[in-house]
Structure formats: C-alpha cells, structure tokens
Design goal:
The complex is a heterodimer of chains A (about 230) and B (about 260).
Chain A lengths: L12 E11 L4 E11 L3 E5 L6 H8 L7 E6 L2 E2 L5 H7 E4 L10 H11 L6 H10 L15 H13 L5 E5 L7 H17 L3 E5 L3 H7 L2 E6 L2 E7 H5 L2
Parallel strand pairs in A: 3-8, 3-9, 6-7, 7-8
Antiparallel strand pairs in A: 1-2, 1-4, 4-5, 9-10
Helix pairs in contact in A: 3-5, 5-6
Chain B lengths: L1 H4 L3 H25 L5 H25 L6 H19 L7 H23 L6 H32 L1 H9 L4 H4 L1 H20 L8 H8 L4 H31 L15
Helix pairs in contact in B: 2-3, 4-5, 4-6, 5-6, 5-11, 6-9, 6-11, 9-11, 10-11
The chains are: A alpha/beta (about 230), B mainly alpha (about 260).
C-alpha cells in the first residue's frame, strides 16, 4: 500500500520515502512504504509491537540499509549524501538514552566535534536550558536520572541543528510525571525550532497530543496515514 | 620418578605425555563440575598440539641441517598458520584471516628483520627459526586476544556505537575506545611477562643456555632481550590488527554490521 500524506498544504516536502522496504533473510520487516512529510510537520508512527516502527526510523537515519525503495531528503536520494552528513541532518533520539561516559557538555559537543566544529558555550547552555537542565554542562552523565539522560540525549541531537528529528519512543522508559514533562518539552522544542519530527509511540493519546499527522504500521506495512482526526476517527 | 621406571628416552617421553594428559583430563573434569564444558576443545587441542609438535620436531631435524635461507620459508609458513589459528578465534569478524596475516606478518616481520639485521638474532637457521617461532607464536596470541576483545567490546556497546553514528560521527572514531581497550587487554600478558621476568619465571631460553653452561648474566640479559622482542612484535601486531579490523565492522554506508543478535 502506498499513500502519501495529504495534509501538506503548500509546504515543501523535506522527507519522502518511495516504496521503502527492508527485509532480512528470515522476514520482511518494512514493506513498500511511501510517504511524504512536509517541512515543520510532526508525524506520529504508531502500531503494535513488532510492526516495524523502529526499523522504519532506523532506515530513515540509514543505520540499516534499505533492501528496496528510496529515501529522499529535500528531494535528493539519501544514498547520494555521505552517511555522516546525512545523519547530522537527520537527528535521532533512541528509546533508551545512551550517553557517552563523559560530562553532559562533552555529550552535546560530540556531534559538532565529529564535523570538526565546536558548539559555542552560549548555544550549549541555551540547549540545556531548552531541555530543562540549565547549569548541567559540567555534570558527569553517571549521576543523571533516566529522565535527565533522555533530555541530554534530546539536546545532543539538537546540537547538530538537524532538519529532521527522529524520536524512537523517547518517553517509553520514563515514569508518568516525567513522561508528560518530556513530552511537553519535545512539543515545545519542535514548535520553537520549527523542526520536522517523526515520533514512534505506542501511545495513541500521546500521538494525538504531539503530532498533526499519523501513520499506522501493521506487520511492516503502511495501514493508514493522514491527519490525526481523519485517521483516528475514520 | 618416571625416569626410574622408564630409562629409555622415548618410553620416558611417552610416560610424560600420558601423565600430562591425565592432568589435563583432571582439569576438564573439575571445570565440568562448574558447568564449564572444555572436554571436546581440550581433547582436540591436546591431540593436535602433540601431533603437530612431534611432526614439526621431526621436520626441524631435517630443516635445521639445511641452508640458512630456508628459515625464511619456515617463518612465512608459521605466519600463515598463525593467521589461520587467530582467524578461527575471531569468528564473526569480517576478513579476520587477512587482517591476522598482515598484522602478524608485519609485527613479527619488522622485529625479526630488524633484530637479525642488528645481529641480536643470529642469521643461522638454528637460531632464526626457534627465536622467530617464539615471536610469531606470541604475536598470534596477542592478535587473537585483541580481535576477540574488540569483537566483545563492540557487541556489548552497540547502543553507544549507533548513538555515535546517529550523530554523524566517523565510525573509526566511534569504535576507537574499544580498539584501545582491546590493545591494552591483549598486551597485559606480555607486560606481565616482562614485569615478572626472573622473579616469577625463568623462561626456556635462559634455562637452556644455563644448562649448556653459558654465562648466567649473559643468559639472563639475552632472555630479557627475547621477551622484549616478543613484547614489541605483539604490540605492533595488535596495533595493526585493531586498526585494520575496526573499519571492517561497518558497511560501506557506515552501518554497524557486527552484532551479537
């Protein structure tokens, strides 16, 4: 099934997949998914466990190689873009926050330093304040709670100033209160930075709160896609 | 005690073999009590080691009577065998044989050539082959340890590695801490050998030289020189192998292809 989004209006398409597929020797994990994501939109990806949500996100970051189809970033086939450049343009926050065993500042500097750049102190502090962790720059990551680690992980992805942000169930490891805080934080940052965002979630209510578009995956196939109201109330 | 029952040298050797095999079987049985199953591997290794060393000993008798230049072929054959054995220990790592071959060849080759040129190792086949084989064998051990440790480190840090990749980092930089850790770990036995020399153990060459009536101080210094050569060749080998292997755990599109699952 292929079904491009319809809520694009006049906004340009920043991310597009054409018949994107991914299969291992044993099974097809992502099958023939085509969609277009307009710049500045938030697309929630929902579906039962094992439906291919995380695998789809990994393909967009090119952590896995598609076995079929294409991904276009701003109209350009992403295979034509060097992987490290592509990944600095498409940021990704993993479900479990994995930080490097250094200070919070070193974690935020990781992406810019990989490009031979340095994050200015003011920008670093701005990002930390933005994720609710002002003054945390010199703290060791070993003393952070899971919620704080996930916020650092988000700030670290934002330090690359990505055009698209991929979030893989970013609130899944958090408890109720922290979950809601991080969710609000993400919504605020995405709005403030006018980011295009794809967020994988199990939680349909969270999808409705955070996203304007939703895509439903079932067994690796695109079952439904469209504006939240259209899909959830169809 | 055995020599009282077996005065003939061949019978004595056979009795010694039986005794050490019984000792090894004992170790295997003790390990088994703790659900560590070494039986098959130890049986194969003991059999293989015995057959190989007897065969090589027989061949060496002939070889050591040959011209000195034949030692080059003997050492090259040893490097190939060492690479094959190392590669078997490194299953799951792409190109492990080729990486091991280049690395052991480089590490052992540089040290043997340099030391032979400097006259530290005599160029006669009777000196070059035994000392060269010690250098190659130790380079092989260090190489296998380094590759195995590197694989384990990568497999247990896939989350951090992919987090680094997802931030646009160079794959070689992302796995650098694990390569460094593998090099350090693989050289621990060599460093300990240097550190404990003379205190904990008196290695074979020195013992042999003393038995032959050499000056004990010269024998001791020469043993130190050999152990230092072994450390140097092991260091060069593991540096080369981890540098070569670290980009082979990624695809050309900078995706991590080595996984434990």
């Amino acid at each position: 099934m292929t079904s491009p989004t319809r809520a694009s209006g006049k906004r340009s398409i920043i991310l597009e997949t054409q018949s994107l597929s991914y299969a291992t020797r044993e099974r097809c994990i992502v099958q023939d998914i085509s969609l277009q994501v307009p710049r500045g939109e938030v697309l929630a990806i929902v579906g039962p466990s094992g439906s291919g949500k995380t695998s789809f996100l990994r393909l967009l970051n090119r952590l896995d190689e598609p076995t079929g189809g294409k991904v276009l970033l701003a109209g350009r086939d992403y295979r034509e873009i060097a992987p490290h450049i592509l990944r600095s343009r498409i940021g990704m926050v993993m479900q479990i926050p994995v930080l490097f065993p250094d200070t919070v500042a070193d974690n935020l500097q990781y992406g810019p330093r990989a490009r031979g750049a340095e994050l200015e102190a003011a920008r670093l502090e701005y990002l930390l304040s933005h994720v609710g962790l002002p003054g945390y720059a010199n703290r060791s990551v070993h003393h952070l709670s899971t919620g704080e680690a996930q916020r650092v992980s988000l700030a670290r992805a934002l330090a690359n100033s990505p055009e698209v942000l991929l979030l893989d169930e970013p609130t899944a490891p958090l408890d109720g209160k922290t979950k809601r805080e991080v969710e609000q934080l993400i919504s605020q940052i995405v709005g403030d930075e006018n980011l295009t965002c794809l967020i994988v979630t199990h939680d349909l209510e969270q999808a409705a709160r955070m996203a304007s578009l939703v895509m439903v995956l079932e067994n690796g196939k695109l079952a439904k896609i469209g504006a939240i109201d259209e899909v959830f109330h169809a | 005690m055995l020599n009282q029952f077996f005065p003939e040298s061949l019978a004595l050797a056979a009795a010694q073999v039986v005794l050490v095999i019984l000792l090894s079987v004992g170790v295997v049985l003790v390990a088994r009590r703790y659900a560590i199953h070494l039986g098959a591997e130890v049986a194969i290794s003991l059999t293989r080691g015995l057959v190989q060393i007897v065969a090589v000993g027989s061949v060496l008798v002939l070889l050591l009577q040959g011209p000195d230049w034949t030692s080059v072929f003997v050492l090259v054959a040893m490097v190939f065998s060492a690479a094959a054995i190392s590669a078997k220990r490194s299953q799951g790592l792409a190109d492990a044989f080729r990486v091991s071959l280049w690395s052991i060849g480089f590490g052992a080759g540089v040290v043997i050539l340099l030391m032979t040129w400097a006259g530290v190792i005599e160029s006669s086949i009777t000196s070059l082959v035994p000392i060269g084989s010690m250098i190659v064998a130790n380079a092989m051990n260090s190489n296998a340890l380094a590759l195995d440790r590197f694989r384990a480190e990568v497999e247990s840090h896939t989350g951090q590695i992919e987090a680094g990749l997802a931030l646009g980092a160079d794959p070689r930089k992302v796995v650098l801490p694990y390569a460094q850790s593998a090099i350090r770990a693989s050289l621990i036995p060599r460093i300990d050998a240097l550190r404990s020399l003379g205190i904990v153990w008196i290695p074979g060459i020195m013992a042999g030289m003393l038995l032959q009536g050499a000056n004990p101080v010269y024998a001791a210094v020469y043993q130190f020189v050999v152990i230092a050569m072994i450390f140097s060749s092991s260091g060069l080998t593991t540096l080369a192998s981890t540098l070569l292997i670290r980009r082979r755990v990624f695809s050309s599109a900078q995706q991590l292809i080595l996984r434990s699952d």
